[in-house]
What does this fold into?
Amino acid sequence: MPYVIGDDLWPRFNQYLADTHEAYKAGRDEEMLELFMRLTGGPDADIAAGKQHPYWALSVALAHTLVKDAMVLNDYKIPTNRLARITQSVLVTTEGPITEPQMAGLPTDFFDRAAKAIAAATPQTERHTLDGQGHVVAPELMARVLKTFFDQ
It folds into this structure.
């Protein structure tokens, strides 16, 4: 849920959206991937090293989805009106503070900000933080959290 919460982030995200749409229209997939990596905090050295990795071409091939992600996510603006209409119980989980170096360009509470806003906008929400987990959560931990939520 990469919704942007906070005036401190909007200038960067608005520029990213404009640059990404321009690169998308021009068919510059590699540039879209680089823009995303820079937005999240990937240093130029890491981007250059990434280009040497065999997975770079696969990542570039998926870069067009970055524009679609932004569209699906309402250009990163939280859809509070839609969330307020949800009648089912909702589980909102996030990792703890961001510690991954490739995400150093984001505030450590980036995902927490969005989770708090989602929880505030959604009537029946359970909020859970997966402390000590990174962007990819251990499956057994996630399974326990989901089981507990669905057993309630």
Q: What stands out?
A: The longest helix spans residues 10-25. The mean pLDDT is 92. The beta strands are 90-95, 125-130. Residues 100 and 134 are 7 Å apart (CA to CA).
